[in-house]
Design brief:
The complex is a heterodimer of chains A (313) and B (253).
Chain A lengths: L3 H4 L6 E3 L2 E3 L3 E3 L40 E4 L2 E4 L8 H15 L4 E5 L4 H11 L5 E7 L10 H4 L2 H12 L6 E4 L7 H10 L4 E4 L3 E3 L2 E2 L4 E2 L6 E4 L4 H14 L4 E4 L5 H9 L2 E6 L2 H4 L3 H15 L16
Parallel strand pairs in A: 3-15, 6-7, 7-8, 8-9, 9-14, 14-15
Antiparallel strand pairs in A: 1-2, 4-5, 5-13, 10-13, 11-12
Chain B lengths: L1 E14 L2 E7 L11 E5 L7 E9 L2 E7 L3 H7 L6 E8 L12 E6 L4 H12 L5 E6 L8 H11 L5 E5 L5 E2 L2 E4 L12 E5 L2 H10 L4 E4 L15 E4 L2 E4 L6 E3 L6
Parallel strand pairs in B: 7-8, 7-12, 8-9, 9-11, 12-13
Antiparallel strand pairs in B: 1-2, 1-6, 2-5, 3-4, 3-6, 4-5, 10-11, 13-16, 14-15
Classes of the chains: A alpha/beta (313), B alpha/beta (253).
């Protein structure tokens, strides 16, 4: 006999900085464009939300090619924040997105100076569809910006403070794993007013073509992502969740509904899916669909109950 | 674009390090010559993009060169096995521009996509001229298939086979050098695919409009990751999604 309790669909919703997500699955910035192209494959409204392509004040072509190298259970990219710039994002990309996505979207922004971050956020602040800002202070593929802000507690705090001053929307700081003490950076962002922390961006890595005796990617180094980095990501999410009171969005090698649960147990309120989208365009949708059953198998009726479960004594 | 499972029906060596794989499955997304498929292989994280050699009904044929671990593993796959493919990727050749006497110029691993193109052009009433270039006799493949095809619309001699070292000869003699040393005259438009230096030489040696298929290391193959971007006269483009075929007037070297 099926009891009413057992027949009830597991509750996959979570609250991220005051906005309810139907589920915690968020395609990560740089793996999902501005969303509308994935809408050709499936209804992207099935997702919790997604984080759009890292946007800068000016258009950027990015780094020279080749930009991609394969690794065991992962990949390296050195795209270098290619994007059409905030003006075109406002005039072309967001109107296209609005036609196919009807939920708040996460706006990933990046810059090469504190002023650029603030100006980009200010220009996007009046876009009604933007629910959160995700401030990328962790891109390993650009010089004089990106990661250089995210590897220093003072610089990280300054960027977050500047963005907070120009918007009332929740601001998440996206952190780099390429630091000695990730918890210290997270605390500095929280102290500067960050409403949440997301991590990890890619790990700085490289590959060499042994026939040519040269690095595979033209920019020599790039960001390593994929299932190989999942344990590192879990460890850092765990450390940061223990260090801050604001919500943490976990990412790094997540490839299945079980991975989502594992990361949430480490303290993540929501989970971003990155490289998996590039190997299988349906990866995020498959995780959304698999989540209720994965929860039921473990006797989880409300997903938000497991946030940080692995940290509780 | 479509994701689907295909069954391998044949996988055999046809030249030095070069293999022909035939697959059966849902080819409905494979619509234009010049498109490619992206293949998931056990033990490799990223898919392998391979151009379509031929496609008819539910049969898809690919010709690929073994260049690393992934294509090496692919060459060992047995008929009966199943592969996860993304099909119908990329923008292919524009057949409407061909005119009566289109010229097809292929080099090495760039030869395969021109076969289906050649067949489709003939079906549409054109009489293609074909120049196929290889490094050496041991690398030559599919020349007889091209000659049989072209015999239907014109003559077997419409196909020229060129080797860099002059080691290959057939009923039409021996052509030594680069494809650009042996381009015929009187063509109405051209389509080309091959290594970068060859494409550049073709660009300089041709005097009509034409289309180039480019190769680049890809992440996703469907336009999401920006891994394969290139600069064109009309801004930055993704080789996988906006290409791999680009018109002559768009290209920036």
């Amino acid at each position: 006999m099926v009891t009413p309790e057992k027949a009830k669909k597991p509750d996959t919703s979570v609250d991220l900085c005051g906005i309810t997500l139907e589920n915690p699955v968020i395609p990560a910035s740089g793996t999902f464009g501005y969303g509308y192209e994935f809408a050709e494959f499936y209804d992207i409204n099935m997702l919790g939300t997604f984080s759009f392509k890292g946007t800068t004040l000016e258009p950027r072509f990015g780094n020279p090619t080749p930009r991609i190298a394969e690794c065991t259970a992962g990949m390296i990219n050195s795209v270098g924040l290619q994007n059409p710039g905030v003006h075109t994002v406002k005039s072309e990309e967001l109107p296209k997105l609005a036609k196919v996505f009807h939920k708040p979207v996460m706006a990933n922004i990046s810059g090469f100076s504190v002023e650029e971050y603030a100006k980009t956020a200010e220009m996007l602040d009046d876009e009604p569809q933007i629910g959160w800002f995700e401030v990328n202070i962790s891109c390993p593929n650009v010089h004089g910006g990106g990661m250089s802000f995210g590897t220093d507690t003072k610089a990280a705090g300054t960027v977050i403070d500047a963005v907070k001053r120009v918007t009332t929307k929740p601001v998440l700081a996206k952190l780099s794993p390429n630091v000695t003490d990730v918890a210290a950076i997270a605390r500095a962002c929280e102290a500067a007013g960050a409403d949440g922390i997301s991590l990890i961006n890619t790990l700085l890595g490289m590959r060499v073509d042994i026939r040519r005796r040269k690095p595979v990617v033209a920019n020599v180094m790039g960001g390593f992502s994929g299932p190989a980095i999942f344990p590192v990501a879990l460890r850092m999410v765990y450390q940061v969740a223990a260090a801050v009171k604001v919500p943490v969005v976990g990412m790094g090698g997540v490839s299945s509904a079980e991975d989502v649960l594992e990361m949430m147990m480490c303290g993540a309120t929501a989970v971003e899916i990155g490289a998996a989208n590039l190997v299988d365009p349906y990866a995020s949708l498959k995780i959304v669909r698999a989540l209720p059953e994965a929860m039921s198998k473990l006797g989880i009726t409300r997903l938000s109950d497991i946030i940080g479960a692995a940290a509780q004594k | 674009m479509k994701q689907g499972f295909f069954t391998i029906t044949e996988n055999k060596s046809i030249a030095a390090g070069t293999y022909l794989m035939r697959l059966r499955g849902d080819t409905s997304a494979v619509t234009v010559p010049g498109q490619f498929v992206n293949i998931k292989l056990d033990g490799f994280y990223l898919r392998r993009p391979i151009s379509v050699f031929d496609c008819e009904n539910d049969e898809l044929s690919l010709i690929y060169k073994v260049v690393g671990g992934g294509t090496g593993a692919m060459s060992g796959l047995e008929p009966g096995g199943r592969l996860d493919l993304l099909t119908g990727l990329g923008k292919g050749y524009d057949l409407s521009k061909a005119g009566a006497r289109p010229l097809l110029i292929g080099g090495g691993a760039g030869v395969p996509p021109l076969f289906w193109l050649c067949r489709r052009l003939i079906d549409a009433g054109a009489s293609p001229l074909v120049v196929l270039g290889f490094n050496s006799e041991r690398d030559v493949f599919c020349t007889e298939e091209f000659r049989e095809l072209c015999a239907k619309s014109g003559s077997r001699s419409d196909v020229s086979v060129v080797t860099v070292d002059g080691s290959y000869s057939d009923e039409f003699g021996c052509k030594k050098g680069f494809v650009t040393d042996h381009l015929p005259s009187g063509y109405t438009y051209f389509y080309t695919c091959g290594p970068g230096p060859m494409l550049r030489a073709v660009y300089d040696a041709t005097d009509t409009g034409g289309e180039f298929s480019f190769e680049e290391r890809m992440g996703c193959g469907f336009g999401a990751c920006m891994g394969c971007s290139c600069k064109t006269k009309s801004g930055s483009k993704r080789v996988c999604k906006d290409g791999p075929v680009f018109k002559k007037e768009e290209i920036l070297w």
